[in-house]
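LOG
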Amino acid sequence: MPVIKAKEEDVKLLARLMRAEAEGEGELGMLMVGNVGVNRVRGDCLDFRKLRTIRDMVYQRPGGFEATIKGYFYQKAREKEIRLARRVINGERTHPASNSLWFFRPTGGCPGQWYNQPNTGRYKAHCFFSPTSANCPRVYGTY
């Protein structure tokens, strides 16, 4: 059962985002990017208040994803990414992005915090950061 509302075009949009942001990190990396996106829609907190749809989340300004800003969000979603997007829309969580609202690719090690949000781990080149449950309880809710 989906944890956020998503039409087929939303699934494909999330799949494109996952591919653009983490194709080089494999399926797990793309699932983690998907987790962050779904958490932003579910969370309704901090920088992500009033995001109600995948489209709102993907194109959020300011605070959106680098792929949509810097021009490498042009590739069509393939069937593989579409399947991965459906998995995260249906509630699959992957650590360290399970409750994350942010990730970025540092040039060195992951900082302990980013914008006052604790680091929850690294996967390949990306560091993930999650809010506290007090700041964003819906991110920590059960699916």
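LOG (cont.) second protein
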Amino acid sequence: MSVTSGNGCFRKYGDQFWVRNWDSPKVSLEVRWQNELWDGQRWQLYRLGTCSAYQLNTGQWGVCNKDFYENTSTNAYKSQGSRVRWQIVTGTTFGAWSSWHLNDQ
């Protein structure tokens, strides 16, 4: 996912959000993310957060490590199912949300 000042992505293996500032070190750039779990009947928002690139030099990548339930493991609702989505935000510009991705690695 990208906006004018940078981009970001999610790496399933290791539950990592990556963000890169390609504009200037003073640009506020972050990846906002949401994690939902399947409760046996519907998806429930379980966690949300941000990964910031504010301290990065131009062109440098930063990473935020998370620890999500795997899609096939028993989750907090005693069911199986875990998915993640994210968006890039810079200043007051909000990129589109990614599609939902099962956290299955």
